Amino acid sequence: MNIKQAAEASGLPPKTIRYYEQIGLIKPARSANSYRDFSETDVHNLAFIARARALGFSIEDCRALLALYEDKSRASADVKAIAQRHLDEIEAKILQLAEMRDTLSALVLACRGNHRPDCPILASMSGD
Amino acid sequence: MNIKQAAEASGLPPKTIRYYEQIGLIKPARSANSYRDFSETDVHNLAFIARARALGFSIEDCRALLALYEDKSRASADVKAIAQRHLDEIEAKILQLAEMRDTLSALVLACRGNHRPDCPILASMSGD
DNA sequence: CCTTGACCTTCCAGTCATTGGAACCCTTAC
DNA sequence: GTAAGGGTTCCAATGACTGGAAGGTCAAGG
């Protein structure tokens, strides 16, 4: 299977697939004409990575998860540890963004947004 | 004022301040010895940028906000538009992260996390 | 047989907002 | 004189792609 088919089947752009090969995430075979030749397993792994990325896992997490996925004697505790750590990071980021949102929405509400220059948003950022 | 004092007064690392000068966000004077010489206004602008960055504004947004801040005939509507757009982006990102969190926390809950290989997390990422 | 268009290849550069390090200069105190 | 603790510049790396250039390959149509 050529890269375009693999891209359509996995939902990843060809550029991204080439990048994943470059960093050693996948190792597709090559045809005689030097084209990449993707097996069903390659496509499956690409879709695996795509789903992990959609959950926000880093590339290095994906590498570790893929290795665990291929290790039939893995311990599910190892997978869970990676997922739990990532979940903690997501929750921390949500808290941080919620704080920004609260501050910012209060400022936006307070700003009249007209032709005049007085603005609580700028006032807040200039230190009141 | 040397860069270290400006860093302490603004809460930004010296490296970051040099970077902000490099991209034209600030334009501190230079002493005879080629050291940067920060005025009170420079430090004030740095603190302004630091607060805007803490609210998640991009550097380009900071540039625009700083320009509006210095323009005494600005319209607060222009400030509000930038802030509202950024607020929308934050809210979109929170929704996206909350979705990741929901999916991921369900998977983490479902995973026993023991020495055995069966794992709903990997199962989900491999396409069930 | 030739051309056209849609593929494919590699490599280089850019994104965003820093951060680290190297190599070197300046100032102050002892 | 020298050591500590500033300062300077420039280059390279981060993460995860993405765009573009220059060129090779392949199937179909004239």
Characterise this structure.
The structure is a homodimer of 128-residue chains. Helix content of chain A is 66%, strand content 3%. With 128 residues, chain A is mainly alpha-helical. The first copy, chain A, folds into two domains: 1-74, Multidrug-efflux Transporter Regulator, Chain: A, Domain 2 (Orthogonal Bundle), CATH 1.10.1660; 80-128, no CATH class. Chain A has a two-stranded antiparallel sheet. The longest helix of chain A is centred in the C-terminal third of the chain and has 35 residues, at 76-110. Chain A is elongated. The mean pLDDT of chain A is 96. Chains A and B meet through α3, α4, α5 and α6 of A and α3, α4, α5 and α6 of B. Chain A binds a DNA duplex (30 and 30 nucleotides) through α2. Chains A, B: Residues 1-68 form the HTH merR-type domain.
Regions with little confidence, pLDDT below 50 for 5+ residues of chain A: none
Order of helices and strands of chain A: HHEEHHHH
Question: In the CATH classification, which architecture of the largest domain in chain A applies?
Answer: Orthogonal Bundle
What is the CATH third-level topology name of the largest domain in chain A? Multidrug-efflux Transporter Regulator, Chain: A, Domain 2
Mean pLDDT figure of chain A: 96
Q: How many H/I helices of chain A? A: 6
- Spatial extent as radius of gyration of chain A: 23 Å
Identify the quaternary structure here.
homodimer
* Residues in helix, % of chain A: 55-70%
